[in-house]
Write a structure and sequence with these properties.
The complex is a heterodimer. Chain A is an all-beta fold. Chain A has no helices and eleven strands. Chain A has a single domain, classed as Immunoglobulin-like (Sandwich). Chain B is globular and about 40 Å long. The chains are: A mainly beta, B mainly beta.
Chain lengths: 111, 113
Amino acid sequence: AQRVTQPEKLLSVFKGAPVELKCNYSYSGSPELFWYVQYSRQRLQLLLRHISRESIKGFTADLNKGETSFHLKKPFAQEEDSAMYYCALSATQGGSEKLVFGKGTKLTVNP
Amino acid sequence: DAGVTQSPTHLIKTRGQQVTLRCSPISGHKSVSWYQQVLGQGPQFIFQYYEKEERGRGNFPDRFSARQFPNYSSELNVNALLLGDSALYLCASSFGPATDTQYFGPGTRLTVL
């Protein structure tokens, strides 16, 4: 079965501190992983995907197949990073395709 | 481009009723996916349609159905509503199937009394 686990429901850091949002996945195939973000009163939007290997708004995420993890990192958190973050896995099984989301981590960056 | 649009914004129904939610994808996008988001949880996949064909179905009862029209807009229908169906229903569109970047709509908040 496909599963995405985000162990931290809430994460609070101070401005300028490093931040890491954890994501672990369970998937028997070749995973395609994403981080989506939802800022207050805004729509859910893509932050980054592992195949692009881009750094968006200073965030990076590396796929570690050995540890089945896709943690999101930023070296210096900003107040505007406060949002809800969801890790997601694109899963294909028997011709059926779906996006499996974790429960999300609410990040608060304090001044 | 207005992005993905959904209607209505809010909806209140009573148990046993039926509801239809609507979604218009971004122009040029051929795939629409539906998600249910219960408070405090991540979005849970319900359906994906690509080129008007069902390409994926989540673990939801047959009370949930959907379709995609020739203009790629989509409807989600839920019959015999239960209290547990109360949630935010999200629609997302993408150019291709699920592995493409998905663009989400603002959602329809359904309350079942």
